């Protein structure tokens, strides 16, 4: 019988071609794709199998035979299915994309993908939480990882960043301490994916360099609405190097097209139960429905000679360069437009490393970055089972790989050569380095920097100011953002058992801002610190989430519909919202259809926390449904837009809302759809006074 060799076809995307599937990386991945359709069951050795439901036994009720190779293979393979999860950032989700630079940056860097605007560079991004285990919930108070692999023609470049621009520690030697403090406590492995416990806050109070980071962590930045709606930061100061060898300091920023938007804490707690995959699902569904996640890559450039111009050290990863001091320059755009085919093969096995750089991008002496350059490859040798994990399809560069590295577990290349050393004469001197061949074009050359000094184990005094930028962050927050930060401190410290730790945290806060320290002190029932530092009064408006880009596109709206809903009134409103890209789910007391609309969710199986807004289109009958009333109250509490069409007045009355900010009622007439869409686009209505309103 002829060998069955199923053709490799790319998955279709809403019936059409998948965007971004025709690039070097996708073509490379295609070679490894295995299709199931039309295939026959075989062992790993390719031997076809008659039956996989019954093991080989002596008689129908007798013992199982050791010679059953299929049974043994199946059990053995299952026993070894799991690999270690990442020691941090274990929980993540990823997507393929493409990057294109707007105009040549040759003045600053010789990285080809940043110099040629016609080049489309394939990328893969993995978003993650940091502290939680692989199966933990997405919506927790935590930093989010934002790691990008650029498959450039000059090799892989990894920008392994976070959604916060600063880190809790300055020197990588402290990473183990920090991670041990934030992870579940060693005696009982509690709590999961939380910083609200004694060891984390003990670390904070012992290590004041954490304070700027802690302000970010207590802010809404730690609760992103969507991976598509959060910023990314390279954190460190890196270095661009141009063809002439001239260096320029650079900070990288990803800026989401949809703006930076967050959930609120009370909502986060409820999303965890309703949908632990909230952020993962959001990214997946957006891409599946043809709504790519788009980010602009921006840089802050600092000439080499300005290294000491700032009142902080550029090598200190607990500091930002305020955008008002060095404005962002948008240099290109990344579009994440394709979901992985297989989570394990791609998202789990991808291996990022800060040391993966290409010509034109180099490191600085930031001691955190230097430590990272060691750690990533090292950890992956354990996690991915040896040094050949670079050969896993998702990790392979599209640039050719030739060197004298050999063997190791799972080597899948068959090197056809009599030599594995350099220099050699037997293989014609190949593979040839730039120096050996005299061809230096396109080779990586480290930035030449003069360094001399004594061997010391000491932190630079220029890293010594731990509070000024924490204060800058606090000063830059809008009133509602400050409110959220104070509440976050109260929640977190409220879970700390040791009183002295809480009090010492407040002493640290007194160096950030007296009002902040006093508000938190009041909440935990202690007197405010008498010794407070003077607030320098400076702010950086770019740090606030106030005034972010607004759009109704891809916003999820729950439409509460009853059997007596006026379909003629609802239909044009739904159409108008969908035309603007909103995703409207019809939620009704029962599945099937309600008032001629197909029901997407039965109300008790939906929850307001899974939506950005709620549109009331139901009649009297919904008033009797406690879930429907709860839906409206909760949406109000969380600042979400509420629309009410004619006939929904009883439901609105039953919710007994304490205000009408962001509540659009039928009195808006023909302009209803427009007004409601605008209210949704605002994201949240912070002008509501909800502190005393129970949801
Ligand atoms: Fe790290 C993973 C981001 C400091 C050691 N880190 C990891 C990931 C992200 C970051 C996004 C997940 C990558 C993925 O999705 O696979 N890490 C950061 C940022 C840092 C940082 C922005 C500071 C600016 N990291 C840092 C230090 C060390 C590490 C100082 C060690 C000295 N990080 C690791 C690691 C991980 C990792 C242990 C775990 C899994 C992995 O690397 O592949 O090597």
UniProtKB/TrEMBL annotation:
<protein>
    <recommendedName>
        <fullName>Catalase</fullName>
        <ecNumber>1.11.1.6</ecNumber>
    </recommendedName>
</protein>
<dbReference type="InterPro" id="IPR029062">
    <property type="entry name" value="Class_I_gatase-like"/>
</dbReference>
<feature type="compositionally biased region" description="Polar residues">
    <location>
        <begin position="527"/>
        <end position="550"/>
    </location>
</feature>
<feature type="domain" description="Catalase core">
    <location>
        <begin position="42"/>
        <end position="430"/>
    </location>
</feature>
<dbReference type="Pfam" id="PF18011">
    <property type="entry name" value="Catalase_C"/>
</dbReference>
<dbReference type="Pfam" id="PF00199">
    <property type="entry name" value="Catalase"/>
</dbReference>
<keyword id="KW-0376">Hydrogen peroxide</keyword>
<dbReference type="InterPro" id="IPR024712">
    <property type="entry name" value="Catalase_clade2"/>
</dbReference>
<dbReference type="InterPro" id="IPR041399">
    <property type="entry name" value="Catalase_large_C"/>
</dbReference>
<keyword id="KW-0408">Iron</keyword>
<keyword id="KW-0479">Metal-binding</keyword>
<feature type="region of interest" description="Disordered">
    <location>
        <begin position="1"/>
        <end position="56"/>
    </location>
</feature>
<dbReference type="InterPro" id="IPR011614">
    <property type="entry name" value="Catalase_core"/>
</dbReference>
<keyword id="KW-0349">Heme</keyword>
<dbReference type="InterPro" id="IPR010582">
    <property type="entry name" value="Catalase_immune_responsive"/>
</dbReference>
<dbReference type="Pfam" id="PF06628">
    <property type="entry name" value="Catalase-rel"/>
</dbReference>
<comment type="similarity">
    <text>Belongs to the catalase family. HPII subfamily.</text>
</comment>
<feature type="region of interest" description="Disordered">
    <location>
        <begin position="524"/>
        <end position="550"/>
    </location>
</feature>
<keyword id="KW-0575">Peroxidase</keyword>
<dbReference type="InterPro" id="IPR020835">
    <property type="entry name" value="Catalase_sf"/>
</dbReference>
<dbReference type="InterPro" id="IPR002226">
    <property type="entry name" value="Catalase_haem_BS"/>
</dbReference>
<dbReference type="InterPro" id="IPR024708">
    <property type="entry name" value="Catalase_AS"/>
</dbReference>
<comment type="function">
    <text>Decomposes hydrogen peroxide into water and oxygen; serves to protect cells from the toxic effects of hydrogen peroxide.</text>
</comment>
<dbReference type="GO" id="GO:0004096">
    <property type="term" value="F:catalase activity"/>
</dbReference>
<feature type="compositionally biased region" description="Basic and acidic residues">
    <location>
        <begin position="22"/>
        <end position="38"/>
    </location>
</feature>
<keyword id="KW-0560">Oxidoreductase</keyword>
<dbReference type="InterPro" id="IPR018028">
    <property type="entry name" value="Catalase"/>
</dbReference>
<dbReference type="InterPro" id="IPR043156">
    <property type="entry name" value="Catalase_clade2_helical"/>
</dbReference>
